[in-house]
Design the sequence.
């Protein structure tokens, strides 16, 4: 901890909060607070200054980070910070909350002259503690410039995605993909197990570039972003394979959720005349529904 450096506040000293404190403390004096006395003791043992209240943190620090379990906890923290000093302060929200929750926090802070940056964390606690996390940031250019030197202490990558709320929107997308993929992997594992495929073989197939990563690196990265749907595996063949997998699942009594829903998309693609194009062309359905372009310069950047 560098006492000749400016102080940075940290509200919330749970696992993520204490992990975040480690890289911050290498360059800043970290003043932390948690409602749990035990967490405050752990923070003090880790070299942080343990404050007795959130108000004390806001009196001592111009920039404060939140690492809290719920949106309600963040709003409550803002109210407690306001009991100290918030005028001219910057609040960096690292908790996982919704974009509307960030807007509420911003409104509450603005009422006391403070501004808010949402800085969603992508990556586990270990990466955070090692200073190798990824931050998805939503902020004005001015507030981002103010927050960046602090975030850089804990970051391997920082993406400034737009105004306040943009970071949380991006994290919700990222997490949704991870959670959906988990269900899909378990469906595949269940189907493999009932079909007599050893789990180690299933894992080996999925972890290869030709497995789970192929739709992302080839179909999305090389075909959808480049709008190249010539050649490759036709949508008709993907639909046929999907139907065969569903038939096998029915035969073996394996319940499917994501695979069943995915098959519906291939049926819709067939009705739209996409059967002869590479099956990455199912992306055209969303482009038509939403009036977006996956292959535009903005989306490909």
Sequence:
């Amino acid at each position: 901890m560098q006492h000749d450096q400016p102080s940075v506040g940290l509200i919330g000293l749970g696992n993520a909060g204490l992990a975040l404190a480690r890289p911050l403390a290498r360059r800043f004096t970290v003043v932390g607070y948690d409602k749990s006395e035990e967490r405050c003791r752990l923070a003090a043992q880790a070299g942080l200054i343990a404050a007795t209240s959130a108000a004390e943190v806001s009196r001592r620090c111009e920039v404060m980070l939140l690492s809290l379990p719920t949106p309600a906890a963040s709003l409550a923290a803002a109210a407690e910070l306001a009991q100290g000093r918030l005028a001219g302060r910057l609040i960096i929200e690292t908790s996982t909350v919704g974009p509307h929750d960030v807007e509420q926090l911003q409104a509450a802070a603005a009422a006391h002259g403070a501004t808010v940056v949402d800085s969603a964390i992508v990556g586990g606690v270990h990466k955070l503690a090692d200073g190798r996390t990824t931050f998805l940031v939503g902020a004005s250019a001015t507030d981002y410039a103010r927050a960046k030197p602090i975030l850089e202490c804990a970051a391997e990558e920082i993406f400034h995605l737009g105004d306040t709320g943009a970071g949380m929107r991006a994290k919700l997308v990222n997490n949704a993909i991870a959670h959906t993929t988990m269900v899909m992997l378990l469906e595949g594992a269940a189907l493999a197990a009932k079909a007599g495929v050893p789990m180690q073989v299933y894992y080996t197939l999925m972890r290869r570039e030709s497995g789970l990563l192929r739709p992302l690196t080839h179909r999305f990265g090389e075909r959808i972003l480049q709008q190249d749907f010539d050649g490759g595996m036709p949508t008709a063949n993907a639909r046929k394979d999907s139907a065969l997998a569903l038939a096998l699942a029915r035969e073996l009594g394996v319940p499917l959720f994501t695979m069943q829903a995915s098959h519906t998309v291939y049926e819709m693609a067939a009705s739209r005349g996409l059967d002869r194009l590479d099956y990455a062309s199912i992306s055209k359905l969303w482009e038509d529904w939403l009036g977006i372009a996956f292959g535009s310069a903005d989306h490909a950047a």
